[in-house]
Amino acid sequence: MKHLLLKILVLIFSASIFSCMKKSIEFTNILIISIDSLHPDALSGENSPNISGIMKKGNFTLKGKSIDPPKTLYNHTAMFIGKHPREIGKDDNEWKEGEPRVGVPTIFRSAKENGYKTAYFYSKSKLGYLATPDIETVRFAGLESPEEALSFYQNQNNRSFVFLHVSGLEFTGIEKGWMSPDYLQTLYIIDARIKPVIDMIDKRGKFIIIITSDHAGHGLLHGTDHPDDFKLPFIFYSDVMKMTEIQDAVYTTNMLKRIVEKILMHKF
Description:
The protein is of the alpha/beta class and about 270 residues long. It has one domain: Alkaline Phosphatase, subunit A (3-Layer(aba) Sandwich), CATH 3.40.720. The protein contains 8 helices and 8 strands. It has helices spanning about 1-25, 50-55, 70-80, 105-115, 145-155, 170-175, 180-205, 255-265; strands at about 30-35, 60-65, 115-120, 135-140, 160-165, 205-210, 230-240, 250. The chain has an 8-stranded mixed β-sheet with strand order 4-3-5-1-6-7-2-8, with helices on both faces. Helix 6 (about 170-175) packs antiparallel against helix 7 (about 180-205). It is globular and about 45 Å long. The relative contact order is 0.23.
């Protein structure tokens, strides 16, 4: 009888600890930043001091890879739905307002079901394909998407799940070349523009920040079968957890949804 009572007490105590652990990792803000066309070799203390600082404090891999083809809408769709777009009948890199949007649940469905306010800020109109009813705040912001995201955070204090798409590097890559001085300068500017958003979340605490990309490029080209076109980083930073599994690991864009859902379900 004493042994049975002891087992019951241990179970109750263990359940209490587990409950406290779960409560301790109720994230206030989850922010995913996709910097369009970011070549991982461009990241450095000189070119991207803010992102590089995050890399030192968190976990990251520079071995990320696009799905094929390495293009914007293909890979953002893969991030959102966790599979190749061809599996849901989407086999092109284009979308226009008025056309059907993605018809399957995305990472925003998971976030909303877990009690987060959802927001999506994007820089290319074709990414409107991913703006589903599960997203409460949607802005096609062009090159001003970092500022739109900052304004969103300044005007709300709820638990939030935000996907921020930042453009600019692709245009510089096409005109001046990937890894050119102009490309690196554009990255420096983007790094500075996302800093206020990251700083605000950092101050609030209990956050997760993921910084990644959809593809890179080479010379003046992208979207080809050249190995550099597929390269991208995956960076994870949080004040309440680590993701050692991702450190220097191979990552592909269709893995993002699974990673986010594991975070939401406290399975890391």
